[in-house]
Amino acid sequence: MIDEHELERGRLARLRAAIADAGCDAGLFYDPTNIRYATGTSNMQVYSLHNPCRYVFVPVQGDVVLFEFKGCEHLSNNHHGVDQVRTAISWYDFITGSRTAEFAKRWADEIASLLGSDGYDLAVDRLDPIGAAELGARKIRVHDGQRVANHARLIKTETEVHAVRRAVAACDAAIDQMRDAMQPGMTENALWSRLHQANIEFGGEWLETRLLTAGHRTNPWYQECSDNVINSGDLVAFDTDLIGIGGYSVDVSRTWHAGDAPITSHQRQLHDAASEQLSHNLALFTPGASFAEISQQAHLPPEEIHSVTNAAVAHGIGLCNEYPLILNRDHFADAGYDGEVKEGMVLCVEALAAPPGGIESVKLEEQILVTATGPEILSRQSLDL
Question: Which of 161, 211, 307, 350 has the smallest number of CB atoms closer than 10 Å to its CB?
Fold first, then answer.
């Protein structure tokens, strides 16, 4: 059991501190994962990813005001981090049409009134151009709220770690059900549906990708699952990418061998290479290690089985895939950034063995908690084929 009130209080305290550290008076958050982090509330999470219909105002000091979708105000009951609930003023074209400018002005007036005469620095995670213009007209300086949220969410509170463990345990049970169901003759879609069903049954929410492929469709990686039939002897590779219990994400990858046909020497070679990559790179995640050091020291498979498809050594995870993203040395100079691994971070470490132009690949990934003594693997799933 998780103390939900303690979970919400701890996250809100970290978010307020991050807003203050950024030199802002308050934050305004539209991303549903940021709203959940700030308030613990959840409503139409996927819908609100592409329809900005709810948001939350979080001042460094003062009332947290949740602007909820009309008619849904009761959903914030029993969430102690929410001091006020108001009806959201939506101003996206689907809702307001030719009156968008009118409603955007109303929205900006209300935000300005919450900031007050002394508050001019506002961190915002998502903002369309018309909204930015209206806030600017009211002398409100807009800052990067997504960066603020990223740094708040970087270190997990003690209660968050319990919530992550719960979500991973449920995901493990869902993976067990998927492996029990796997048999030659079923489609990729049919097998993937078992993970969806179990995730929902255990109290999870949705899957962010469709990464399960079999046989020749495992290479190149990042193809989505389809009606392709799984045959005996096929490799079946998947990436969970699910939003589980309490909104916490679980991102682990495994590659299995289907049916009774013997495992080939090539399949074993790929699996051994991905396992070696994963084992080596897991050991790099100790407190104090820099992202640049990890990038340079990370193991890559031999050139003949190394695909450029996946450039990530690791990425953060919490309510979704989160900051940071650590790229391997082939990509770090062009697109990477530095930082430091710290105790309390939760990360996913990736491995992929995929011969360029080949017909099979092996994808592996572990979710870890960084402890004072190094990485703790959170999933109990075997890496075996």
Answer: 161
